[in-house]
From TrEMBL:
The protein's required cofactors: NAD(+)
Lineage of source species: Bacteria, Bacillati, Bacillota, Bacilli, Bacillales
Record organism: Paenibacillus illinoisensis
Cited CDD domains: UGD_SDR_e
Protein name: UDP-glucuronic acid decarboxylase family protein
Keyword set includes Cell inner membrane: no
Domain NAD-dependent epimerase/dehydratase stretches: 7-248
Keyword Transmembrane helix assigned: no
Enzyme class: lyase
Pfam family name, one: Epimerase
Gene3D superfamilies with a match to the protein in the record: NAD(P)-binding Rossmann-like Domain
InterPro entries in the cross-refs: Epimerase_deHydtase (IPR001509), NAD(P)-bd_dom_sf (IPR036291), UXS-like (IPR044516)
Regions that span the bilayer: none
Length: 323
């Protein structure tokens, strides 16, 4: 198999990063994965750990010296996915979350500039905050609270986007910014704290299914295979240079609908219990993906029910293997 490109992926041991790494290696690319393992887990990469196409470097991208090992290597593409993404984890390490999305983004952009590499930044639908425009197009500037428990993630991602803008306009780095909406599959940590991982784990272990608020808040859920396909389409599409593009599923569900669907598909006897809604939790969230369709020729293909069935099957098998 001919090696096609050398691609650097930060956050490689995380949920999205590990799926991306495996996809790129299966396509024959040489991949260097970087992760400080603060929330990523090395077991996510077991499938490719011994591949001659893969090199893993435990490193912190907020430290410029941690990238010195790449000085003499050619780099064709950089996917900067490093960052806690669950409120549970980014609020526990709020300063680290700010640093990886700002200083870390700067260092990775510098790497892309010096190597003349393409660059993709994984931003987030959280850039829209608690939106007053629904659904959310890329042109919407958001409704974000800078003085609250989610700001460390929301605002750090927004500043990361500014770094990308500056490197695109001043240094002509071929930058693409993906605003990623809720993504799921069995690869999410059971203690991740996000909706799907919580519901599936609780349903399969007989725990109460925890719904925050009254469950009327809405989300749009994109299966990980669709997401990874979208990110790769962005990287390979020249028309995406200098663009922000929503990557997500435009089909909207209330959290309560999702809870009942998980309970049904898992054939679970778990009860639903309701807890107070966290501060600044968005009431609605749904992407406009017209730009992804027109620029990338991309849209999600896997329905929530299909994706949940796959997720439940895989999590059930994992739980059965656990001593």
């Amino acid at each position: 198999m001919n090696v096609l490109k050398h691609i650097v992926v930060t956050g490689a041991a995380g949920f999205l990063g590990s799926h991306l790494v495996k996809s790129l290696i299966h396509q024959g690319h040489q991949v260097t994965g970087i992760d400080n393992l603060s929330t990523g887990v090395s077991s996510n990469l077991e499938e490719v750990a011994n591949s001659h196409l893969f090199h893993f470097q435990e490193a912190d991208v907020t430290l410029a010296a941690s990238l010195d090992f790449l000085i003499d290597q050619p780099v064709d593409e950089v996917y900067h996915l490093a960052s806690p993404a669950s409120p549970k984890f980014y609020q526990a390490d709020s300063i680290g979350t700010i640093w990886v999305n700002t200083q870390g983004t700067y260092h990775m952009l510098e790497l892309a500039r010096t190597k003349e590499a393409k660059f993709l930044f994984s931003s987030t639908s959280e850039a829209y905050g608690d939106p007053e425009v629904h659904p959310q197009p890329e042109s919407y500037r958001g409704n974000v609270n800078t003085w609250g428990p989610r700001a460390c993630y929301d605002e750090a991602k927004r500043l990361g986007e500014v770094f990308c803008y500056e490197y695109y306009t001043k240094h002509r780095v071929p930058v693409k910014v993906a605003r990623i909406f809720n993504t799921y599959s069995s690869g999410l940590r059971n203690d991740d704290g996000r909706v799907i991982s919580n519901f599936v784990t609780q349903a399969l272990t007989g725990q109460d299914i925890t719904v925050y608020g009254d469950g009327s808040q809405t989300r749009s859920f994109c299966y990980v295979d669709d997401n990874i396909r979208g990110l790769q389409k962005m990287m390979e599409t020249e028309e995406a240079n200098g663009e922000i593009i929503n990557i997500g599923n435009p089909t909207e569900y209330t959290v309560l609908e999702v809870a009942y669907l998980v309970k049904k598909l898992a054939q679970s006897d778990s009860k639903l219990v309701f807890q107070p809604l966290p501060q600044d939790d968005p009431k609605v969230r749904r992407p406009v993906i017209d730009k992804a369709r027109s620029v990338l020729g991309w849209e999600p293909e896997i329905s929530l029910e299909t994706g949940l069935k796959l997720t439940i099957e895989n999590v059930r098998a994992t739980l059965q293997e656990t001593p």
